[in-house]
Amino acid sequence: MKVLRFTEFLYESRKAKKLSPLSEMMDQEVGLYDDINEGGAYGHVEHPFEDTNLTMGQLLDMIKTTINGSFGPENFVQEKTDGQQISISWKDGKLIAARSKKHMSNAGQDAMRIEDIAEKFKGRGDIEIVYNAAMRDLTNSIGALSDKDKERYFANGQKFASLEIITPTTQNTVPYGLNMLVFHGVVEYDENGVAIGEDKQAGRDLGKLIKDANAEAQEMFYVRGPQDMDIKPFPKSKERGSYYMKKYNTILKDNNLTSSSTIKDYATNRAINILNDEINKVYKNFSPIPEDIVEKLAERIAGISKAYRVNNMKKDGVEVEVVQWYNEWEKKNTKVLKRKVYAPLENLFIEVGTEFMRNMSSFLSANPTEATESMRKEIESTIAELKKSGDETQLQKLEHELQRITAAGGLESIVPTEGITFIYNGKLYKYTGIFAPIHQIRSMLAYKK
Fold first, then answer.
1. Is the dihedral of CA 35, 231, 175, 389 positive or negative?
2. pTM score, two decimals?
3. H or E element: which one contains 214?
């Protein structure tokens, strides 16, 4: 493989007709939903509907803010990139890297040096080339900063900057068409590797400082800060607001909620309804499971709490044959049930997020139109291949993902980005729109192979 200088790669990437396939999935960390694989020390960013402490009123406020384009500088709305995550710092005059809590501890005492990265990825083809090049380019770009700036943003290993490595060579789902190292923010850690503070603005600052030092264009990568987004109200925002308000009110009504109810209340109530519907099918409008136990089982189904075990039903006086029925039903339907619980809220936010992103024009992708068409063609081909497989489990999951795509407006709603991150009430959230289901479909085929 030829490693191109940045200026050469710009030319080659524009000329290329077809981008490289997925090379390898990296170490991963996932949250409530396994939609987006987010690796490394920076961790999982939640969709709004994953935060069970949020109220339904706060979700509505978030939706209204999105529709009206009311996000301000304090919301740090940025493009969420689909690359390989790594966190870096500067300690004792050298670049260090971290992908675990251990690496963050004691001011990066056990963090990875350039030679450690080289050894970790030795013999792994494109991944080895990309990570080694990233470490060299980051050494040169960070090294060009003043000692004062290095201390401010890295504190000799106490602070780590999170960034993503983006290159067509190890492309995941979004074909950006560029080699980039994109900073997101800087996190400070205590001696045990526990985060004690975060500076989201630092990603922008580091990108600007590196550019001012003429150190952004390196041997393989362009080193930069996050992409700031052009926030605008939705076209016909009043009409769109009414449309989403109707969907929101339906969710409240169907699950006996108010604006002060939490997402935990939503998930529990919906799971109760799902369970009671199934009980009625089997026991014909007679419930052999007391209401308080149904609520505890609902929390299991919704993934809120597994504290109440199926065996506890026997101790609480539920008949053995009923316990056996429930146990078999839960085992058979666990994943399907959880998806069913969150589907209404998830679909609402997929649709809002997709429309939000379709209303934007500034993305990191070198050629957004070409990238969008490439993604659409690949996912259509993947869907066709999965349908031919005859694998019942795969087909069931595919059907779920296709329903999510339909909720977002179909494959015509694809945009060339993983999503958008933003701060709401001091916490980081994400919109991933249609990216979430298409990434899952693509991953289904990749893992199968």
1. positive
2. 0.65
3. none
Question: Higher pLDDT residue, 76 or 414?
Answer: 76
In the chain, helix, strand, coil percent, each to 5? 55, 15, 35
Q: What separation, in Å, do the N-terminal and C-terminal C-alpha atoms of the chain show?
A: 24
| Domain spans, the chain | 82-226, 262-338
- Express each pLDDT in 64-115 by its tens digit: 999 999 988 888 887 776 678 889 999 999 999 998 889 999 999 999 999 9
- Token pair in block for residue 170: 């190890």
82-226: what fold?
A: D-amino Acid Aminotransferase; Chain A, domain 1 (3.30.470)
Q: What is the SS3 assignment for 375?
A: helix
Report the C-alpha gap between 337 and 341 in whole angstroms: 6
What is the dihedral sign for C-alpha 403, 372, 48, 51? positive
Q: Are 47 and 33 in contact (CB under 8 A)?
A: yes
For residue 323, pLDDT over 70 is answered with yes
- CA 28 to CA 356: how far, in whole Å? 27
174 close to 417: Cβ distance less than 8 angstroms: yes
Closest to 387 (Cα-Cα) out of 306, 347, 337, 445? 445
